[in-house]
């Protein structure tokens, strides 16, 4: 049917296309993990609020913990160091003191009134007040964050003297001394004596500050020494477990770079005496103990008074993920090829959909020494609240919970517990990566399995198609059969059905092919009887009218005999071709002899010969002559009067080309390919008086195929005429 729509896609493509619907599985897995993430987020919200409630319950009915007078500078003594809560980690390597801007109002000054005598001074060790100008002074601020003590010291010094690059002594330049009573109630002293503005290196002192052999590097104390226009600034950090309850700082000043003697010392207290060392006062020690007693919650915990002022801050929001994620396997435990595929192929695809969390973010809402937010406002109004907030710059989500702290029915403050959701997002990403990797592996196996299965099916079908196409040659004759498959599936059944069908068709075709010879053989006897009877009748009948009828009957018998001869000619020729042997012949010589004979046989027709050279082929001269008889007879029959017939023969490359052309009517286009089939004729009705079964060109084709050549008929474009061309292989001498 002409209107049938055909798809260009085969079975393999269709099966692979259908398998693409497996992609709905990762989508379902993705939706499932998103639902799981939502449940985990709700659970994390309840945990954070529960932590805030537990801390608030522990701080309830403790109004003394929120005494605002502990923050008043008027209540402080110079030798004692007051520690202020810092709620974010200080940067110690940014060459600036911007992190301290929210706390600088709590700085305490130390100058001429705070000079002391030391073994390195020229004055008496027992004199305290001896310095008479303000050329040396400093301002100090001490804060606490996440179990670390931070110190900020801004020194005014009119003449800076650093350690010499090759000097091992730490007392012959400007330096900072840190003295403390450690948790074992022992006096411990440390010195920071740089060779210039640099990252500080602290050394623990022995009994004598001048004993360089007793110096021990203390790596737990770190920070930065900056040089300013009027002196220098020191930022440092040390862990709280290094400290006891007493702490002091002293600035040693050297003015003469040649003599390098200590000219003055300004200190917070007597840093060389445990009895006279100042105390380390923390405004919220009880709050700190309560929070520390809650254990590690992997959250940022802040205690805020009712004026939104931070009293205590523990934990970093950047690391407060709330989830304990499993450690990634070591690099040597992961196959390097799989790692390459993950890093270069899978992850770039996955993270087109997923968002990779980053802990490199700043929470701008809490910039300053006070907190803000709807959750905190609600908690200070007596109502617990949780909220989620997204940071625009990094797309990080923050989970915040606040719970009020009550005392005598009044709100004294609030506990704020924060966590970032990066841990949950990382957990989700890890789950999705595992899911996608697993599904991808399963899908690849399924797709390759389906592809192999489809390839197997298509190859079997294609093989069956090829066998079916090779059964019949270009002339419609059966030449092969189909090998019946032994498989028990549908394709095997189809193969066996084709086999039986071709077998029956072959039997029927063989019957049809032999029918003409059988008919010729069977009809010749009655034709002979009729002919002899007519001959005998003609000898005994002398009536003129009867003789006319006898003559017509004989003419009919002759026509019938010619028909029988034509019917058996092709069959006899095929049988002869099967037993004939080829020999080298000169095709041009054979054709020249044939043309001479045709000129005598057809004196009314001009036959031209365009033959050139010696053209050697392997063949049988008699069959070539028989082929030419059919072609010339066909050309003479269809040629216009007074128009020549041309016989052309040339050698071209490895083939001999024989062409017989004549002036005559064009062949119908639909008959060009069928002209050489058996029983096919395109003669007009007026030429059907002579018996003709359309076997001439069929015989020509049989002879051509016997010589391993090809024959075709075509209309001539230059003039109205037809050319029949035969090509046969040349003999390679």
Automatic annotation (TrEMBL):
Alphabetical list of CDD domains matching this protein = CBM9_like_HisKa (cd09622), HAMP (cd06225), HisKA (cd00082)
Q: Which residues cross the membrane?
A: 435-455
The organism encoding this protein is Pseudohongiella nitratireducens
UniProt subcellular location? Membrane
Just give the chief location class.
Answer: membrane
Q: Which InterPro entries match?
A: HAMP_dom, HATPase_C_sf, HATPase_dom, His_kinase_dom, HisK_dim/P_dom, HisK_dim/P_sf, Sortase_His-kinase, TCS_sensor_his_kinase
> What range(s) does the HAMP domain occupy?
455-510
Q: Gene3D superfamilies attached here?
A: 1.10.287.130, 2.60.40.1190, 6.10.340.10, Histidine kinase-like ATPase, C-terminal domain
Top enzyme class, one word, equals: transferase
One Pfam family of this chain = HisKA
Q: Name one GO cellular component term.
A: plasma membrane
Give its E.C. classification number: 2.7.13.3
Q: Which reaction does it catalyse?
A: ATP + protein L-histidine = ADP + protein N-phospho-L-histidine
Q: Name one GO molecular function term.
A: phosphorelay sensor kinase activity
Q: Where is the Histidine kinase domain?
A: 518-732
Kindly provide the name given to this protein in its UniProt entry. histidine kinase
Keywords, comma-separated and alphabetical: Kinase, Membrane, Phosphoprotein, Transferase, Transmembrane, Transmembrane helix, Two-component regulatory system
């Amino acid at each position: 049917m002409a209107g049938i729509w055909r798809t260009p896609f085969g079975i393999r493509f269709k099966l692979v296309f259908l398998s693409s619907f497996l992609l709905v599985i990762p989508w379902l897995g993705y939706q499932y993990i998103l639902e799981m993430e939502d449940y985990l987020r709700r659970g994390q919200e309840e945990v954070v609020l529960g932590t805030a409630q537990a801390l608030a319950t522990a701080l309830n009915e403790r109004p003394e913990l929120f005494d605002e007078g502990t923050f008043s500078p008027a209540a402080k003594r110079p030798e004692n160091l007051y520690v202020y809560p810092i709620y974010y980690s200080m940067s110690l390597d940014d060459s600036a003191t911007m992190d301290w801007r929210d706390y600088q109002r709590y700085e305490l000054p130390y100058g001429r009134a705070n000079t002391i005598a030391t073994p390195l001074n020229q004055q008496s060790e027992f004199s305290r007040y001896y310095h008479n100008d303000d050329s040396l002074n400093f301002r100090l601020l001490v804060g606490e964050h996440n179990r670390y003590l931070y110190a900020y010291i801004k020194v005014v010094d009119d003449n800076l003297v650093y350690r010499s690059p090759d000097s091992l002594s730490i007392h012959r330049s400007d330096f900072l001394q840190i003295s403390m009573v450690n948790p074992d109630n022992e006096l411990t002293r440390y010195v920071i004596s740089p060779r210039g503005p640099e990252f500080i290196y602290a050394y623990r002192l022995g009994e004598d500050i001048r004993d360089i052999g007793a110096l021990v590097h203390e790596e737990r104390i770190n920070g930065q020494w900056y040089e300013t226009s009027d002196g220098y600034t020191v930022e440092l950090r040390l862990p709280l477990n290094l400290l006891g309850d007493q702490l002091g700082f002293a600035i040693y000043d050297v003015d003469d770079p040649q003599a390098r003697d200590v000219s003055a010392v300004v200190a917070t207290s007597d840093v060389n005496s445990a009895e006279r060392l100042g105390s380390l006062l923390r405004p919220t020690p009880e709050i700190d103990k309560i929070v520390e007693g809650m254990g590690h919650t992997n959250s940022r915990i802040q205690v805020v008074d009712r004026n939104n002022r931070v009293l205590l801050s523990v934990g970093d929001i950047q690391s407060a993920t709330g989830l304990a994620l499993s450690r990634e396997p070591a690099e040597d435990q992961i196959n390097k090829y799989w790692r390459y595929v993950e890093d270069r192929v899978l992850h770039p695809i996955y993270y087109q959909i997923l968002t990779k969390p980053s802990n490199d973010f700043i929470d701008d809402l809490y910039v300053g020494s006070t907190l803000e937010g709807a959750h905190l406002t609600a908690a200070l109004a007596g109502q617990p609240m949780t909220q989620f907030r997204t940071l625009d710059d990094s797309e990080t989500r923050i989970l915040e919970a606040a719970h009020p702290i009550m005392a005598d029915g009044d709100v004294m403050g609030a506990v704020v517990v924060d966590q970032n959701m990066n841990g949950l997002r990382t957990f989700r990403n890890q789950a999705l990566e595992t899911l996608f990797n697993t599904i991808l592996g399963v899908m690849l196996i399924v797709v390759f399995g389906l592809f192999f299965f489809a390839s197997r099916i298509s190859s079997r079908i294609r093989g069956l198609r090829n066998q079916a196409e090779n059964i019949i040659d270009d002339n419609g004759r059966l030449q092969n059969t189909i090998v019946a498959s032994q498989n028990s599936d549908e394709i095997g059944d189809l193969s066996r059905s084709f086999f039986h069908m071709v077998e029956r068709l072959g039997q029927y075709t063989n019957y049809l092919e032999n029918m003409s010879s059988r008919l010729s053989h069977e009809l010749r006897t009655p034709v002979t009887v009729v002919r002899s009877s007519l001959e005998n009748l003609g000898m005994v009948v002398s009536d003129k009218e009867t003789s006319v009828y006898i003559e017509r009957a004989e003419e009919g018998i002759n026509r019938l005999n010619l028909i029988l001869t034509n019917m058996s000619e092709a069959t006899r020729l095929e049988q002869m071709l099967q037993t004939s042997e080829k020999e080298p012949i000169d095709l041009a010589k054979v054709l020249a002899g044939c043309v001479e004979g045709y000129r005598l046989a057809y004196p009314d027709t001009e036959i031209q010969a365009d033959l050139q050279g010696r053209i050697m082929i392997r063949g049988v001269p008699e069959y070539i002559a028989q082929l030419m008889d059919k072609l010339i007879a066909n050309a003479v029959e269809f040629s216009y009067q007074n128009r020549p017939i041309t016989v052309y023969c040339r050698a071209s490359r490895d083939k001999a080309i024989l062409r017989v052309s004549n002036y005559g009517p064009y062949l119908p286009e639909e008959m060009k390919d069928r002209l050489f089939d058996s029983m096919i004729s395109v003669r007009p009705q007026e030429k059907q008086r002579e018996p003709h079964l359309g076997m001439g060109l069929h015989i020509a084709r049989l002879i051509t195929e016997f010589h391993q050549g090809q024959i075709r008929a075509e209309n001539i474009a230059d003039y109205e005429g037809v050319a029949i061309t035969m090509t046969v292989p040349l003999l390679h001498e």
